Amino acid sequence: MEPARDRELDRQATTELALPPASLPRRMLAGFLDALVLATALTGFGATAGATNAPDAIDRASARPDFIVETGVAAGLSTSFFGAALIDNQHGTLYSIELPPTDTGPSTLADGSRYAWHEHGVGWAIPKSIRTGLVNRHHLVLQNVRQALPELLRQIPHVDIFFHDDLHTPDHMLWEYQLIWPHIRSGGTLISDDANFGWIQFCKQLGQGERAYENISRLAAIRKP
């Protein structure tokens, strides 16, 4: 998708998503918001912030997942929270897909993002206690998601939680949503960071109402019936 067209779609999405005014800069809120949604989705306590059909958006498939798939690892914030929940559950496996550090160097990616974490390694911020506690229940796949995700979905029976947080262009995000949705089991949850026009398109394709656009700084989720 061309950058100019991408920006225009994102501008339209910002209006349609009805983003709430931020009382603090997004940079200060980002870690807290990610933690809130991910921890809530995994523990099943209360309603997921920004989720469709809350408070009944959390089902056993999300509260005690067998398989979690995330695209985009970077320093490892979401991976840490997923891992902590799986350790607490004493059940479940996490698959994390990220580009090799050599592919995410100082150059600017298609969504305008630039990364510094590659200098420290993928998932460098994941606590040792999480790494040790998960043992062999965390699989880090360093490969382009266009190849890695379809291959992974051929290997596992279903997905309970899917978290998108890699390339944030509408066409790529829509591709991920459409690919993963048939593999998410009933009661499972699709979570997306930086929801944009791709999220709106996908929700409309599913026949979701405007409540599917509820979000906190573009962090949104829907549950599969």
Task: Describe what this molecule looks like in 3D.
The protein has 225 residues and is α/β, with parallel strands linked by helices. It has one domain (3-223): 3-Layer(aba) Sandwich (Rossmann fold), CATH 3.40.50. It is 38% helix and 16% strand. It contains 8 helices and 6 strands, in the order H-H-H-E-H-E-H-E-H-E-H-E-H-E. It has helices spanning 3-16, 26-43, 60-63, 77-89, 128-134, 145-153, 170-180, 197-205, and strands at residues 67-71, 93-98, 138-142, 159-164, 184-192, 220-223. A 6-stranded mixed sheet has the order 3-2-1-4-5-6, sandwiched between helices. Helix 4 (77-89) crosses helix 5 (128-134). Mean pLDDT is 77; it is low at 19-33 and 43-58.
Helix content: 25-40%
The CATH class name reads Alpha Beta
The residue ranges in which pLDDT falls below 50 over 5 or more consecutive positions are: 19-33, 43-58
Secondary structural class? alpha/beta
- Choose one word for the global shape: globular
Number of helical segments? 8
Q: Using DSSP, what is the number of strands?
A: 6
Which percent range describes the beta-strand content? 15-25%
Q: How much is the average pLDDT?
A: 77
- Write down the secondary-structure element order: HHHEHEHEHEHEHE
* Largest pleated sheet: 6 strands, mixed
| Amino- and carboxy-terminal Cα gap | 32 Å
Give the total of domains. Answer: 1
**The CATH topology:** Rossmann fold
| CATH architecture heading | 3-Layer(aba) Sandwich
- Radius of gyration, rounded? 16 Å
Order the strands across the largest sheet as they lie in space.
3-2-1-4-5-6
